[in-house]
Amino acid sequence: VPGIVTVADLDNLNVERHGLLAAFYCPVPAGTVDAVHFSNQTAQNQKLKMYGYQISASGQVQRDLTNGYLTHIGNRVGQEYIGHDCTPSKLSLSGSPIFNEERQLVGISYADFGITKALNVENIASMLSEFYDGMENRVLYFVVSI
Questions:
Q1: Which domains, from first to last, does the chain contain?
Q2: What is the DSSP string of 69-83?
Q3: pTM over 0.85
């Protein structure tokens, strides 16, 4: 159902992998949260934010929101990606969401060789169509880059 995201009942969580993505799907919703909207409108020097995690000096996992810019749009092995300079932590290299200033998802980080790379929304949407025999009437709990 477009526009609705569920909070998962972890005892009923299903996992599926395709390409660079792993999706976690829960057939039994435990509640609702605000939906994340996708945007395929990207441009060089666009302001971005990456949501990830850091480890504190005391060893606690802390949420982290890092500012940066879209540095370039590239193409590797037929897949377009966006390069960005949001500084990733070791916990944020793969799977951290990248948002624009309108709080729309523009990518998911997957590599940090030099400048961090992120799958763009078109690639994410294409890969999601491979999950669960397509995403018609499905709600994802979480998607990560692997």
A1: 5-35+125-145 (no CATH), 47-121 (2.40.10.10)
A2: EEEEEEEETTEEEEE
A3: no
